[in-house]
Specification:
2 domains; mainly alpha
Length: 206
C-alpha cells in the first residue's frame, strides 16, 4: 500500500508547485486576518493606539468648547513632538540608541527623554548644508516648519503655564478693568497661537 508521503513524492511537479503556492496563499490570508483582529483590539482598548481619542490633559470637570478646542489641539501638538519626533530622533541616530540602558526598551527611553530628543530633532535642519539631495530652498522650508513647531511647543509647555490668573491676584494696582484687559490679552494670544498651529497642521505627520 502506498502511504501519503509516497503519493506526494510521485505527484507531478506542477501539482507540488501549486500545492505550495496554495499553502502560502492560505498562510498569508490567515496572517492578515490575525493581524486585522489584533489591530481591531489595539485601536479600541490599547491606550497607545486609540488614535481616535484625544487626551486634553484637563482634569475631570465641565469645560466650554473654546477651552476644549484649544487644549485638544495643543495636546495633539505635544503628542506629535514628544511621541513621533522624539521617536524618529532616537531610532535614526545610532549615538542616541547607544545611550539606552540594557534594561530599558526604546519606548521607555523615548518616554523618559521625550522633550530632549524632540528638541534636538527640531534643530536638525539648522545644521544642514546644501548638497546633491537637498537644495537651500528645501532646507529653508524645513527650518521654518521646525522653528514654528518648536516655538508653539515651548509656548504651550513653558510660557503659557506661567501666566498670572487675572482674577486671582488682588493688588492695589490690579483693578477689575486691568483684570479684564489681561484676560482679553490672554484670549487673543491663545487665538493667535491656535491659528499658527492650524497653519502648520499639514506638516504634523511622519
Amino acid at each position: 500500500m502506498i502511504n501519503k508521503a509516497d503519493r506526494y513524492q510521485f505527484q507531478p511537479w506542477y501539482v507540488k508547485l501549486w500545492s505550495r503556492k496554495l499553502m502560502d496563499i492560505l498562510k498569508d490570508i490567515l496572517m492578515d486576518i490575525l493581524k486585522d483582529i489584533k489591530w481591531w483590539f489595539y485601536y479600541r482598548f490599547h491606550p497607545s493606539h486609540r488614535y481616535n481619542k484625544v487626551d486634553t490633559c484637563l482634569s475631570p470637570g465641565y469645560y466650554d468648547k473654546d477651552k476644549l478646542i484649544l487644549h485638544a489641539c495643543f495636546s495633539l501638538l505635544v503628542d506629535f513632538v514628544e511621541g513621533e519626533l522624539a521617536w524618529i530622533k532616537l531610532i535614526s541616530h545610532q549615538e542616541e540608541r547607544n545611550k539606552v540602558p540594557w534594561y530599558m526598551t526604546l519606548e521607555r527611553y523615548r518616554d523618559k527623554h521625550a522633550r530632549q530628543l524632540a528638541l534636538q530633532y527640531l534643530i536638525y535642519w539648522d545644521q544642514y548644508t546644501p548638497d546633491d539631495n537637498h537644495e537651500q530652498q528645501e532646507i529653508d522650508i524645513h527650518k521654518a516648519e521646525d522653528k514654528e513647531i518648536r516655538e508653539l511647543y515651548l509656548w504651550w509647555m513653558d510660557i503659557r503655564p506661567k501666566r498670572v490668573d487675572p482674577f486671582g491676584v488682588i493688588k492695589e494696582e490690579y483693578s477689575p478693568d486691568n483684570a479684564m484687559d489681561l484676560d482679553e490679552a490672554y484670549n487673543q494670544e491663545d487665538e493667535d497661537m491656535l491659528i499658527r498651529l492650524m497653519k502648520i497642521r499639514l506638516h504634523m505627520w511622519t
